[in-house]
Amino acid sequence: MNVQRAQEIASSSIMANVLCDGLPIYIQHVNEQSETARIYALNHPEEEREVPLYTLTERDQVLE
């Protein structure tokens, strides 16, 4: 995923269908310089982690 799209998703009020290692995640913050994102899995919101943007994929379906 590129930096611009990750930032759009992170700032949107609409929940996008984004995966990291096959798990649905929420993007909290995008670090433009390091091209990483602070994320958490939707089923484990207490487990935040920083991952490279290239590990994130977006599915066409939007979750509501």
Q: How many β-strand stretches?
A: 5
What value does the average pLDDT take? 92
Estimated radius of gyration: 10 Å
**What is the general shape?**
globular
Biggest sheet architecture: 5 strands, antiparallel
Tell me the number of helical segments per DSSP (H or I, 4 or more residues long).
Answer: 1
Tell me the fraction of residues in β-strands, as a range. over 45%
Element-by-element helix/strand order: HEEEEE
Lateral arrangement of strands in the main beta sheet = 4-3-2-1-5
Low-confidence stretches: none
Relative helix content = 10-25%
How far is it from the N-terminal to the C-terminal residue, by CA?
21 Å
Category from helices, strands and their pairing: mainly beta
What would you say this structure looks like, in words?
With 64 residues, the protein is mainly β. The protein has one helix at residues 3-11; strands at 15-20, 23-31, 36-41, 44-52, 56-63. A five-stranded antiparallel β-sheet has the order 4-3-2-1-5. A hairpin with a 2-residue loop joins strand 1 and strand 2. The relative contact order is 0.31. The model has no long low-confidence stretch (mean pLDDT 92). Belongs to the SspH family. Its main location: other.
